[in-house]
Design goal:
By secondary structure, the protein is α+β, with helices and mostly antiparallel strands. It folds into two domains: about 90 residues, Phosphorylase Kinase, domain 1, CATH 3.30.200.20; about 140 residues, Transferase(Phosphotransferase) domain 1 (Transferase(Phosphotransferase), domain 1). It is about 30% helix and about 20% strand. The strands form two sheets. It has a six-stranded antiparallel beta sheet, with helices on one face. Strands 7-8-9 form a three-stranded antiparallel beta sheet. Helix 3 runs antiparallel to helix 5. The longest helix has 20 residues. The protein is globular and about 50 Å long. The termini are far apart.
Length: about 230
């Protein structure tokens, strides 16, 4: 397959496709052989005319660019062409916690407790940093991830835990504010106040991480029902 050039980024391999964006492995190229491996998230074409989604995507990039921590996926660039918006991020050479849980279930084994603790400690460190982060003027960002789940926790092959995808995160400084009463996030990991549509702080992320810990240590989902509405209740 031919590579795709995007400004100074060369997209070499599609990693994943979701309902809203594609993620590509890319190379950032420069002078005299400079090359850096990155991941690039590209908005799907049918969403380029969706103003609400574009605002959310831009908010994600602006927020994540202010976060610099070893347990958070770094964002390096937010760009646009005539056709689409994109975000250049740290390439995480590893696997998602959701994939690890599925494989453990398939094999009928438990994740060793010390590994569960390692994942928990890394995720807590990243979230603690995000929750206490300030903008360049020293004002608290009051950032809440709002979508902590196994899908948004990755582990590199050298054992580093990474919190990813601040796509629906909420901060006091956001330009595009969330509609009141609109639920965003995975229902099975929502705190009661998030499910009720109330104002959130970092404790909501801690609650969600507790659900993830329960799932890691037991091998089962804590809240599972026949449909999303039943899960909320």
């Amino acid at each position: 397959m031919d590579t795709i050039q995007l400004d100074d980024l060369r997209l070499v391999r599609k990693i994943a496709t979701g309902g809203m964006a594609e993620v590509w492995e890319a190379r950032q190229v420069g002078v005299k052989g400079f090359e850096k491996r990155l991941a690039v998230k590209v908005i799907l074409p049918h969403l380029n005319e969706n103003d609400d989604f574009i605002h959310m995507f831009l908010d994600e990039g602006r927020l994540a660019a202010q976060l610099n921590h070893s347990n958070i996926c770094q964002v390096y660039k937010l760009g646009a062409t005539d056709d689409f918006y994109y975000m250049a991020m740290e390439f995480i050479d590893g696997v998602g916690l959701s994939s690890i849980l599925r494989e453990a279930s398939r094999r009928g084994v438990f994740i060793p407790f010390q590994h569960c603790c390692q994942v928990l400690i890394g995720a807590c460190a990243g979230l603690d940093y995000a929750h206490s982060c300030k903008d360049p003027n020293g004002n608290p960002l009051n950032l809440v991830h709002r979508d902590i789940s196994p899908q948004n926790i990755m582990i590199t092959y050298n054992g580093t835990v990474k919190v990813v995808d601040f796509g629906i995160a909420k901060a006091a400084t956001q330009v595009h504010h969330t509609q009141v009463g609109v639920l965003k996030g995975k229902y099975a990991y929502m705190s009661p106040e998030q499910a009720a549509g109330h104002t959130l702080d970092g404790r909501s992320d801690v609650f969600a991480l507790g659900i993830v810990l329960w799932e890691m240590t037991t091998g089962h989902r804590l809240f599972r029902a026949e449909n999303e509405i039943a899960t909320l209740h």
